[in-house]
Amino acid sequence: MESGLITLVGATTENPSFEVIPALLSRCRVITLNPLSAEHLSVIVKRALADRQRGLGTMQLDIEDAALDHIINTSDGDARSALNSLEIAAMAAAGPESDPARIITTAQVEKAIQKKALLYDKSGEEHYNLISAFHKSLRGSDPDAAVYWFARMMAAGEDPLYIARRMVRFASEDVGNADPRAITVAMDAMSAYRVIGSPEGDLNLAQAAVYLATAPKSNRVYDAYNMAKAAVRETGSLPVPKHIRNAPTRLMKDLDYGKGYRYAHDYSDAYTPQDYLPEALKGRRFYEPVERGYEKVIRERMAYWESLKINK
């Protein structure tokens, strides 16, 4: 191989770093072949139906869109699997009990594949219906419904990382600081899935879904951020109060940058009453924690700080 006398070509469905000895692998150029996309599989299936020489063209069959989608979804990027399913379904469509219209139906494909087609379209209404049902089940603290809708999406071929990203968003939007660990659980589940993939990693995502569904809920961080964005739109670029500006140069010090700033750690409980918002927004409150979960602790802490402001 090193001299060029031998050209070795090999193909494997396994990871070559596990299946090929290092001495041989180091002398090879490894080319990774990825699963075919849905668009490519669609072209292959339609071409097989039309090709009269190497395909099924002489049978003069057509195929329902839903039946084609089911073949694609269950073939998992494998053209050979898709063509095998098509061939078996075509035999049923052309048989004695076939439809006079000679159309391969979803029912015939289901019978050929031995797997029922779930109502789902990754870019259509049912996609949004199911993710909405999942999100609302999490928000409604129903772990049974949450894990059911999760299983429905997984069985229909949804991208698991899409579901994981939605859970990461949910952890801040609907749980927030009522359970600060929620975002960690969601991120860890997504990372675990990236490492081990399906089907083992599916359980990591299911665990996160159950955790989020049973966590205390708060949307106050979500509300606070939206109100802060609205304030920025309304008031524009308000100047930073001088006492909390940095003063790295002599001129800045002469202009009173940083003058009067109180360093929190110099005071009891590392807190001292001080204004941090621009003058035009002085006293504005964006974040109002609920009395649930950890936010109850935050609420009590903020009330204590407020009392110090009043009594200063």
Describe this structure in words.
Helix 4 (65-75) packs parallel to helix 6, helix 7 (125-139) packs across helix 9 (160-175) and helix 8 packs antiparallel against helix 11 (202-214). The chain has 312 residues and is an all-alpha fold. The chain is 54% helix and 1% strand. The mean pLDDT is 87. The N and C termini lie far apart (83 Å). The protein contains 14 helices and two strands, in the order H-H-H-E-H-H-E-H-H-H-H-H-H-H-H-H. It has three domains: 40-113, Helicase, Ruva Protein, domain 3; 125-214, Zinc Finger, Delta Prime, domain 3, CATH 1.20.272; 237-310, post-AAA+ oligomerization domain-like (Orthogonal Bundle). The protein has helices at 16-19, 22-25, 38-50, 65-75, 79-93, 106-113, 125-139, 143-155, 160-175, 181-196, 202-214, 220-235, 250-254, 293-310; strands at residues 62-63, 103-104. The protein is elongated, with a radius of gyration of 30 Å. A two-stranded parallel sheet has the order 1-2.
